[in-house]
Amino acid sequence: MFYQPKNNDHGLPHNPFKAIVSPRPIAWISTLNADGVANLAPYSFFNAIQDTPPMLMFAVAGKKMGVDEPKDSLVNIRTSGEFCVNIVSDALKDAMNITSQHFAHGVDEFEKAGLEKAAPRVIKAPFVAASPVAMECTLHSIIDLPGGGQMVLGQVVGVHIKDEHLKDGLLDVTRYVPLARLGYMDYANVETVFSLKLPEDS
Questions:
Q1: 110: domain CATH number?
Q2: How many domains does the chain have?
Q3: Residue 161 has pLDDT above 50, yes or no
Q4: Is 11 within a domain?
């Protein structure tokens, strides 16, 4: 089959784009609003973009599930210039799903999901205490995207890793099983890891 996204003429029950670009890691973004109330929300258009200095990005859709007002995460980041990325383990999938709901402005999603806050070292926004890895970030820039979305670029200024997920000096993701987003309502988790050595020059 072939289709042109601008025409939305794929003829399928649901747009396949998110299913094609998968699995996608999940950025569970924690922020503080101007009144000091925490916000926590997941975003699946997320990835690292370089490692020196470490930087990452996540994207906020222009319209989410019929909600037109700006996402609290984006408003808070514009105001504070900072945010934290919490990695979602398989054990945290239900809590993450709770925070994906659209709550009223000023609602603390940590409380709604029964999550404990942990104190940051560099920025002010708290992170999820149960998260296997959390990255404190300062805002680098926000790029407007077609369709009303925004891409947030952040520089990582602090990294929290739970010691039990380190093995022989390496981060072992199989010890916490990170969650990934697929298409539709589907998710996957990372349980099997293998290595490939770079081929030698012939």
A1: 2.30.110.10
A2: 1
A3: yes
A4: no
